[in-house]
Amino acid sequence: MDPMLMTLTAFVAVTGILITGYYALTAKAPVTRRLEEIARGDLAQPERPAKPSRGPVKSALMALAPYGFGGGDSSLADTLSFAGLRGPSTMTLFVGARTLISLGPALFVLVMALIAGKPLGATMLRAVLIWVVLHVIVTQQLKARAKRRIGSITRGMPDSLDLMVVCLEAGLGLNATIARVGDERSNMKDALGQEFAQVSMEMRGGRSREEALRALGSRNGADDLKALAALIIQSDRLGASMAQTLRSHADLLRTKRRQRAEEAARKLPIKMLLPLAMFILPALFVVTAGPAIIILRDFMTVMTHR
Prior knowledge:
Layout: H1 2-26, H2 30-40, H3 56-64, H4 74-82, H5 90-115, H6 120-169, H7 174-186, H8 191-204, H9 209-218, H10 223-238, H11 242-305
Helix pairs in contact: 3-5, 4-6, 5-6, 6-7, 6-11, 7-8, 8-9, 9-10, 10-11
């Protein structure tokens, strides 16, 4: 039974590798396919929008997605958006990747334990535990990435608003200011600059400024960015001075950033209490009291033998 199971596992693995390699090596480039269509005379037919090509890894992950959990979770879609992972197939790819990362090691442990003849109950429990732990780790890593991106956007808002004020006072309109700030900050790999560049692209594509700004606040999860979008929309409706409004809001955000830094500094002694009590104080006690304890032990030994 064991040799047959090992043979079947090896056959499935080798077959999968060969099929994947065949499709990867025989896949034609989009330019080659287009030239073949021109040679066959297919240009006379109505042109259809080309679908984005998928590699073997991407296709495999998307094929695994239906077997995973959380594919229809709206909170997961929001978390992916907050983390900057957007696209029509982002949810499917993430669920497929999470399924592969969590289920793959669990199945490997299960198969190896069954081949070795270990008890089925303990093996199943171990495999389920591995799957749950890896599933939670991948989800928490995604949430941590979303939190880091939200923090990066929040910290960079005062500087971006100062740049917007300079552009507005130089005579640029609001749309041109957003485009300019987006170009400058996105070249620095700044998350907020990339979002402003996307807003500018949406407005050039025909979307109204109010809709683009509201989408900017809703897809990033940063409360300060939502407040900024609402402030710009309200000031635009009322006809207020946009430069003065943004300058006042930048001062407010800078004050909030300083207050957050002071709050983090006040929390630092509490966070240091646990490592101090577990790692530093025991070592300090051994160094300071150790020699005295040794001398006291020797003294008590001498007094006892008398």
